[in-house]
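WARN retry 2 of 3 for item q-0093 after timeout on previous attempt; input resubmitted unchanged.
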Amino acid sequence: MKLLRKIQYVLTITMTVHLIPTLCEQKKGECMLSTKVQGIVLAAGQGTRFKTGRSKLVEKICGQEMILFATRLLEQLHIPSLVVVGYQKELIQGILENHHGTSVSYCVQEQQKGTGHAVLCTQKYWERDNLLIMNGDVPLVTPQILENLYAEHDKAQADISFVTSHNPDPSCGGYGRVIKKDNSIAIVEARDFEGDPTEECCINAGIYLIRRSFLEEALGALQINEKSQEFYLTDLVKIASQTQRVVVTVDAPFDQIRGINNFQELWAAEQVKRAELLKYWMDHGVHFSAAQNVHLDLDITIGSGTYVGCGVHLQGKTVVGKNCKINENVSLENAKIGDNVTIYPQTIIKDSTVEAEAEVGPFAYVSGNSVIKQKAIIGKFVEVRRSIVGAESKAKHLAYLGDTQLGERVNIGAGTITCNYDGKNKQRTIIGDDAFIGSNNTIVAPVTIGKKSFTAAGSVITDDVPDNALAIGRTHQTNKEGYAEKIRKSHYENKVEFTTAGFVGALKGKNNNSCQ
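OK item q-0093 returned
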């Protein structure tokens, strides 16, 4: 290769990403990229084809903003990264800082004059001999692609290396075409390409590895494009070819280098990523009843032997244990689910924990860092918010538990609610072990109900209840015999339709005083 470099021969190498072992494997865990390469992510553009008024890089794929795919990839390979921001820079930086803290550096491109201009803006930040430049909108790139790119770049002692792919589909627009002819090579941007895409099907992935010395020399030779009034980074390939520099291309599967310019392409990329996630979890013993109708985020975990039904959404940092049954149309977001848990259909669990062997749903809602302890049961149309439900406790029907702490083996009757909000502050309810709360109770916090105590059905509990006590908080029932006939007669004489409003009116006398 040194001889080729001396005679300034243009070298073009094409290879398949799966054939070469990763550099980390070659170096026994020490990745060469971490010491030889500096990463630059281009993230200053507007993404106007999305037509949302916000940067396309904040759109999510499998729960993660697009820009984070590039920066997390560089982080995984221990490559220091510099992100070029411009349009909505505060939004982009906020997302990156939330994930990376201060480990990512930034360069501001005040005016977006193309990719070549964006790289020129970074010049004072260059610190290493090789610069890995990649677009921020290629979220499916794998570590192996970058490792193979560096391996071929280093072996050939190349001035510029870049990733290519092949796609003969004429509807696949938006990609620059790689034109190889004799000993020359160039990239023609999509807006300038006039050839047959089925014949010129080699496309540019927007991932470049460039020797710093060549970049310092060649950037000044970039000319502004007359049509777009932008400086194209892709023109560096043509400059390298014309000056007899060493150029290397590394081929990769199209699905792994997809660019995202509109919502259709975003959707397509998410299908690819989701398919990868589904395959991974299937290989680890997870059964999906209808995999095509399941939504999985990147950072979830599912234990082996677990069943996942149709329409399930597993989002955020959700962790599902082993041998669970997650039934149809369940949504779990940042939830922690223990082993052998059953979650019935139409249930939502958000930012909360369900411990082993518990049951939740159907139509239940658990949120606000609630904890459902081992073998507890949260049943139909029950909401639990900011509460702890003790082991083997049960709230099977139509209940609301807000800011409540249940002991073990507590029974919550149907229609019971804890009134946690006094109009200004949230108040807590504490219910001791083995308590039995009757149906249709209204428990007005703050209040404590003791161990092994009972509350009568229909009670309003406003005061603490001692251990082993029975609390009855309802008014005395009064029966007025024969009064129903009077109501019917009144409605007949006045020809009033028998409705709830009419019934209330019938209980009022001529002086408008309520009947006693």
